[in-house]
Amino acid sequence: MKDYLKSIEILPNDKDNIEFWERENRKSHTSYETEILFYSCMMHGDTERLGACLENLLAEGIVAGKLSQDSLRQMKYWAVSCITIAARYAIQGGLPEMEAYNLSDSCIRRIDVMNDENEIMDYLIKKCFEITELIKSIRIRHSYPSSVRKCVSYIDKNLHSKITLAELSAECGLSKDYLSQLFKKITGLTVTEYVKKRRLTSAKMLLDRGTTLSEVAYGLGFCSESYFIACFKNEYGITPKEYVASKGKL
Known about the structure:
two-stranded parallel sheet, 2 strands, elongated, mainly alpha, 2% strand
């Protein structure tokens, strides 16, 4: 794990006139303009620009205000504020409000139980990229033809139940054969493959929130817990239990 703490400086809080001290020492909070640039990369789903922006930010150094006398609590407070802002920008980028708020709450709960400042920073950075990737996928879906967008929307709303090609055909007003061909051409996946991928993506989010393996499997329409585990491992290379353990939740 990279030592990110070398790139973060905390302003003192024992000065009678902090603004005067900042001017005299030529140090102040990381600028609003810099923060806007960083979060705007997330809002537009631009992972490449986000990476470059983060690299510059770490190289120049991040300056944050003093939030607590305790260094661990200081990092937690700062990380929570970053995630909260990121969630709002994610909504502006197209992430549904419910999903954004739930994701934010889940991240904050995870940060709350961490006991290492560098681990918090590492987690924060990874989540920023995950959120950016989510927004990127949403923006791609928005460019789909209306019939495919209707299918995708229907799938997202019905992940918990069995989804058939006949239902999707009726939803968008196309024949099953034509819809099947169009969907594969636009998304690069068959309807069945797309549904499974969306269920597995949602499964990771539910596991992050502490939902049990059984609840995730049956709540997302998998025919059995063992089938869900097999699908998850095939997609991500690890079992759901190993995924949860890697997040420090076991």
